Prior knowledge:
Elements: H1 2-16, E1 19-31, E2 42-48, E3 53-60, E4 66-76, E5 81-86, E6 100-103, E7 111-115, E8 118-120, E9 124-131, E10 141-149, E11 155-160, E12 164-165, E13 169-176, E14 182-190, E15 193-201, E16 209-215
Parallel strand pairs: 1-7, 1-8, 9-16
Antiparallel strand pairs: 1-4, 2-3, 2-5, 5-6, 9-13, 10-11, 10-12, 10-14, 14-15
Amino acid sequence: MKQYLLLCFSLLIFYSCKKDFEATFRGRIVFSCDNTPVGGLRLSIQRWDGHDLYEVCATNTDENGYYSISDQINNFGKHDYFELHTYGFTQDSIPAWPCFVGTLANSGSSSKTVIMNASIPYCQKIILHVKNVNPHTADDKFKWIEQINYGEDTTYNIIANDYLVGLVDTNFSITTAETNPMHFSFAYEKDGITTVVDTNIVISPCYDIYTANIFY
């Protein structure tokens, strides 16, 4: 009998810590590089309930980057929280890096305004213009180009590894949210000798397309 009463008491405490309320989610999304509002961006409000992350509701930002949406929240515990996720593209097909902002610890009130602002990287296209500007022969080769990501674990993103012979004047493209200098390495062969060149490209933030010349 004592164990049964203890179980009932424990369940009563557990469910009394769970709250039902109507939440209004609102905020503003801007690009981190210049605080330009991100209009028409699809957003997902998601909830972590201690076990799973699932969508509560979804909406779009207006032309000034603002959003507001309300929904009924049930059984919200003290360890639960909400996350704001972007889908990665605006309505005008301008790319924006997917991100999330975690927020809100339940304070026990019956209604809540959940403010979640986000400053997200601008996802831009980089054109690498590769051109042979020196005297060349038909046997000269452009061998490869790769992006080097330095860090705790250095990674190499191979952009191209097809041999291009003779006169080379072509473009390769990548998409990035990077605003710091980007590191590249490329190799070419002339008169049977391979030369490897390391170069840094300084990205101008908030450009849809940025062109970098790689001349050899």
